[in-house]
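Apologies for my clumsy wording, but can you show me some protein sequence, whichever is easiest, together with the matching structure tokens, please?
=====
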Amino acid sequence: MATRTTHVIQHVAFEHAGVIGNALRARGHALQVFQAGVDDLAPVANDPADLLLVLGGPIGVYETEAYPWLEAEIDLIRQRLAAGGKMIGVCLGAQLIARAAGARVYPGTREIGWAPVSPTPAGQDSALVELAAARWEVLHWHGDTFDLPPGAQLLASTAAVQHQAYAIGNQVLALQFHPEVMPRDIEAWLIGHTVELAKAGIDPRTIRARTAEVGATVAAAGERMFARSLEEAGL
């Protein structure tokens, strides 16, 4: 029987909790999923769960005129930060947390596909070290970046994008990349992001082939990483 709860804010259906969900359920968490822009997020604010997981999506944090519900989501995250509530953010989720913490989010270098990150010394000393088993290779899928939030510790970088992962104490783990993806789901990503891939001149067969080579290894390392992070956060 679940003894803990996790609220999940999801922005597109195929960018779901993946191996994070596996790690959470293994630790007795019941997951309640809220679709951003569709579902009422009042329960997330009014009855806080043990953990808030904010997932990825193809829109920009700064596109609040086109997607006005983003303001309420950012405000909800800001309140949770102030209350000391624990969070994990992935891609857009990491950007939303950064924005709620007072940092700037803006267009950056587009990175799409499988490539390694370079851990900082703090990253080597964190749960991210589990990704070493996958030679630090992860799935990247973003065009925006962010300044490091006040009080945050940088955990990983790439040559093109310095701020790839950060932590705020043991309250927040935020990742620009996607170690949560299960290889069986990659086709949904290729379909869902077909326009972006075409604009970027990326052949989906390249990502599909590399997923077949490394996807399972990265997913297993990612699940261990999230399990370790949850344990360190007392979740």
